[in-house]
Design a protein that fits this description.
Helix content: 10-25%
Structural class: alpha/beta
Number of strands: 17
Shape: globular
Strand content: 25-35%
Length: 287
């Protein structure tokens, strides 16, 4: 498992009885996590002194209970990257901190290429990977189906000082965009994909990862340039094992390309437990 190091503004303090106790800057949050299936004593006083807690609803979804001093928006930093956070629906804050290992890897590979690198970021959410790539000197095409998420990504780019860099911000269905890029003959030196397990496109299109991953990978792989340097596939879908993800990327994307391919769990160190909490898988191909 690859776990995050050096993210001083984020800490997974504890995890117990289906919930995480987290520090985001100076803000303490409690959020549900289905991976936390153990229970024990909650000795850390911050379990009883959090700024906000997300409560699951028996009928689906849930709500934030803001207990004290929770700003509408606040910021955290990872190195020279800055992100604006806010409590939002479905327990999220607008950032997945475990992905910091991939932001750092992308920056490293782009800088190592020692040339201009074109990056396609699909299902790009609030833009953390986009900003990391821009910081490393790449030009980025950022695609997400949600207009609100793309606007949030622009705000993060401004906060990180890269709003004036070479980036295209696009609100679009990712698979439809990929197919249009193939017809246009466009290519990219690096591709990052973070598809949701389930979702809807801008026109109500239903997305289920297990049903559409093969087509998505097969089409997206056609956009890799001959001298591409990396391809990342992130997955939070529990039913897709690392072995399956690795095979799918080999089968549909990299083929006989030279390079290294590996699939790892990514996770977060739990300070009070001395363990690492799995938070998904990433398959990486790099030249």
């Amino acid at each position: 498992m690859r776990t995050v190091e050096g993210f001083n503004d984020y800490e997974l303090i504890d995890a117990d009885s289906g919930e995480r106790l987290e520090r985001w800057g100076d803000i303490i949050l409690i959020r549900p996590d289905p991976q936390v299936i153990w229970s024990g004593k909650r000795k850390d006083s911050r379990w009883h002194n959090a700024n906000a807690i997300y409560h699951r609803s028996a009928s689906g979804g849930g709500y934030w209970e803001k207990l004290k001093n929770v700003p509408d928006v606040w910021s955290v930093s990872y190195g020279d990257l800055t992100f604006r956070l806010k409590p939002m629906g479905f327990k999220h804050t607008g950032l997945f901190p475990e992905q910091a290992v991939n932001w750092s890897l992308a920056e490293e590979l782009i800088k190592k290429a020692n040339r201009e690198v074109s990056v396609l970021n699909l299902f790009a959410y609030t833009g953390a990977a986009t900003i990391a790539c821009l910081k490393a000197g790449a030009k980025v095409t950022h695609v997400d189906a949600s207009k609100g998420m793309v606007q949030w990504a622009k705000e993060n780019a401004l906060a990180s000082g890269v709003a004036d860099k070479n980036v295209r911000w696009l609100v679009d269905d990712c698979l439809k965009f990929v197919k249009r890029e193939i017809r246009r003959g466009n290519k990219y030196d690096a591709i990052i994909m973070d598809p949701p397990s389930y979702g809807r496109g801008p026109n109500g299109e239903v997305w289920k990862l297990e049903q559409q991953l093969a087509e998505l990978l097969g089409e997206t792989g056609k956009l890799l340039s001959d001298d591409a340097i990396f391809f990342f596939l992130n997955s939070y879908t529990g039913g897709l094992s690392p072995t399956i993800l690795n095979y799918m990327v080999k089968r549909y994307v990299t083929g006989d390309r030279e390079g290294e391919i590996f699939t790892d769990e990514i996770g977060l160190h739990v300070t009070n437990k001395g363990i690492s909490l799995p938070c998904g898988n990433t398959t990486v191909w790099k030249r």
